[in-house]
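Section 5.1 Outputs to date
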Amino acid sequence: MASPQEIYAWLRLANTDGIGAITFAKLVRNYGSVAEVIKALEKSGREIPSQNWAENELSNAEQQNIKIILKSDDIYPQNLSALRDAPPILYAKGNLSLLSLTPAVAIVGSRNASLNARQITTKIAFDLTEKHILVISGMARGIDSASHLGALDALNHCGPTIAVLGTGVDIIYPPENSDLYHRIAQHGLLLSEMPLGSSAVGSSFPRRNRIISALSNGVLVSEASEKSGSLITAHFAIEQKKQIFAIPGSPSDPRSAGPNKLLRAGAHMVETADDIIKVINTSPQNNSLKELPIFSDDLFTMPLDNSSKTTNIPTNRKLEIEEFLSTDAVNIDELIRVSGLDTATVMMQIVDLEMEGRIIRMPGNKIALNGKK
């Protein structure tokens, strides 16, 4: 493992303004080592983070049981190191052995996913974990959270899962996922390329998606709009020649546009975990999408740059119940439980939606979106 002095040097170079992962690698190739790059930068008068900052960063990490992993370390994931823009440094909290666990499937989707999509995703993640397939996601609201919860509930409620964060690994985001964060730290692994204390910034989320994809054998897209961050993850997976899976959805629901488009392009259709397991077991390295004539550049409108304006960071608000609904019927009692809203609020919103003709009541105390509207 790397010495503290080596970690300090890597931390300083990786956090120098204007030096990203690709530039980092080029400089090391040119100068032979990170230490030599630091000397050259200091000699040129380039402003870089101080030795004292790096020492504090490592000390803070150790106090929080966070491991700083260098790209030169043996435990750095090989499938991630193959990326041209592989992170020079990873911060990890939890079970480090999961970094080498295969096979693995990434599951991504909408933050405002319908209740049915969450339930299906949770079931698939549970079944994959029971079959010893690692589930990876991003700990966001909606589908990401459902994926982690399904995995954690498997194997006698100790199932492993990896959450790749768009913040520092010591930051809980979104805040309502505090319990989920601590469960993953206990039974799984929290992972980030961001320095400790890094808050939620727009450009960090599309960046972390390349890590989610790279760590997996394939990516499953649940509900996702046509221009969502989930399709950015699928885009990375296609470039990395990973398997692409998608759960079909109703054409009347915009959240189904992403997976339905992937399916038309040749993604594997998924109804149960077995649909994924069969593909992973038979051809884990072969990309299922050979050509992508239906995709255009405007699907991926969040480039890997330093602009905080490239992604909308959702505010910490309670979702309206309509965001949990789809054209498939859901039980009202289950809707109340999952939404976190009180019964009176839910019932009032149901009345309003029904009067506007946006939902219909179904037998068995169920409601669904009106697909004819």
